[in-house]
């Protein structure tokens, strides 16, 4: 490897009937992980050393990539190998066209190594490649080892403890009735003294591989059924600019460059059980609060779109009874005229329960505001609904007022600024 800061992209071509795929990494000593913490994937996105981080998916014109950022300089000295793997979600790799793995220089973007996986059939997981130490340097090797047992089989093969659904214990076999005792029985002997049983060693909880991806066909999920109605739920928006110019601006004869200072703002309209309404957003420094109404807090403003930071919002689900509904949306504050050339992913990570994610559809209208997620408390259920709805404000109407009108929030708005 000519450099230690690397971007590993698992890539494939999407289409009807093509299952989703996920990139993962395992850090090994002697061919096994030291603990479950050496497994980096969508539910455990960063290694404690900071050497490997799961960045997430991008979809650029039907070509999907799932990315791992690897900093070989931060890999602990004991680690000998970093395995780079892929798992199929909802099918086999025989249904995934043009599967490959590319290793890129993270700073320059130049391709350092590439391996195209050919001839897959029933496999649902693959070890595509690995970084390994040799004479004090890091090298990359293509592997192409397939598994028909999915991510679970691959993970357990390297020593990961995977959380499995509880199975009912088998029914005990019927026992024969006791034989008739003899007329006289010798007195029972006292059992031998047994040494005290040491207390059990506490075990780390097993790794959960479950996740939920919302689509047009399956746009909603119950947090109640997922067991995710308490603790903090983090909402992350990350994005990538696909083109240099905004297509809608160019069509209007006013080309506007998509600069690195593209500023997207994650916002939330809320309505509480007592009827109070409001907005959480960086505009006007309305960042909210977690331990008092509205029980929603927005992190600082981000302009990079990186999944490790991005725009983040946290909801305190310990107060879910006080919440009637929350609409999470995103606006373009500056740097572009529409979402037309933007690819974005939304991830909701409850403290308990499976993470929920989805990608935004390609924007085909001159939109500056997009409704992302509607969270509704029905009284007996807490439901997350994928919206992914691009809205076009009328002339002179703010994006906030536009989304308010579309969802009937009924608030009064005045101009504001950061």
UniProtKB/TrEMBL annotation:
<dbReference type="InterPro" id="IPR017115">
    <property type="entry name" value="Tellurite_resistance_TerA"/>
</dbReference>
<feature type="compositionally biased region" description="Pro residues">
    <location>
        <begin position="175"/>
        <end position="201"/>
    </location>
</feature>
<protein>
    <submittedName>
        <fullName>TerD family protein</fullName>
    </submittedName>
</protein>
<dbReference type="InterPro" id="IPR051324">
    <property type="entry name" value="Stress/Tellurium_Resist"/>
</dbReference>
<dbReference type="Pfam" id="PF02342">
    <property type="entry name" value="TerD"/>
</dbReference>
<feature type="domain" description="TerD">
    <location>
        <begin position="4"/>
        <end position="158"/>
    </location>
</feature>
<feature type="region of interest" description="Disordered">
    <location>
        <begin position="167"/>
        <end position="201"/>
    </location>
</feature>
<dbReference type="InterPro" id="IPR003325">
    <property type="entry name" value="TerD"/>
</dbReference>
<comment type="similarity">
    <text>Belongs to the CAPAB/TerDEXZ family.</text>
</comment>
